[in-house]
Amino acid sequence: MFDMMKMMGKVKEVQDRVREAQGRLENITVEGEAAAGMVKVVANCKKQLVSLDIDDSLVNAESKTILSDLIVAAVNNAMDKADERSKEEIKKSTEGMMPNIPGMDLGNLFGQ
Question: pTM of this prediction?
Answer without folding.
Answer: 0.57
